[in-house]
Design goal:
The protein is of the alpha+beta class. Helices cover 29% and strands 14% of the residues. It binds adenosine monophosphate.
């Protein structure tokens, strides 16, 4: 059997700030925004979802979409809230495209400190990509999937999710 990178027992979290490890989730800056304790540039709100401009935009129009449900990472989100975010994300993208004039954009969603998550409240970045050098710039250091390992991995994932 190939390296067990996808076995739960082998997942090792990097050192994280204490609040990240707490359950229930500790108060974050986004909780304070949701409560109105600190201000933001609000873009959208419904019963389950809130969106506002990122305070440190990678490009003009960089927007954050967060659930009102307070969980740290996407895997902890309820189906109901996940559906609500999925419903509104494309609408927000269309609005951002129209208003900024940027035809292209990235959706970024970080989970865990090693994956560049800084605020431990689930959030989706909508980052307009007006030029090659502006917006999200990334190294896409791809490898090659071994067919046999791919077959084993897909089967393991399919079994886990019950698909
Ligand atoms: P991440 O690295 O995915 O956790 O991204 C967190 C994002 O939250 C960063 O892009 C920050 O600029 C943004 N951010 C942090 N504090 C605020 C704030 N008070 N208002 C708006 N955006 C914020």
């Amino acid at each position: 059997m190939a390296p067990a990178a996808y076995c739960k027992a082998h997942i090792v979290w990097p050192a994280a700030p204490e609040p990240y490890k707490l359950r229930p989730m500790a108060d974050t800056i986004f909780s304070k925004i949701l409560r109105g304790d600190i201000s933001c540039h609000k873009v959208y709100e419904d019963d389950l979802v809130f969106a506002f401009l990122d305070i440190g935009p990678l490009s003009f129009g960089h927007t954050l979409v967060i659930p009102k449900e307070e969980v740290a990472t996407l895997d902890l989100l309820s189906d109901e809230t996940a559906a609500a975010i999925g419903r509104v994300l494309p609408r927000l993208c269309r609005a951002i495209k129209t208003v900024t004039g940027a035809e292209q954009f990235n959706i970024l969603q970080n989970n865990g400190p090693m994956a560049h998550q800084a605020v431990f409240h689930v959030h989706f970045h909508i980052i307009p990509k007006p030029s090659v050098d502006t917006g999200l710039v990334m190294d896409w250091d791809s490898t090659k999937l071994d067919p046999e390992e791919g077959a084993r991995l897909a089967a393991a994932l399919s079994k886990e999710i019950g698909g």
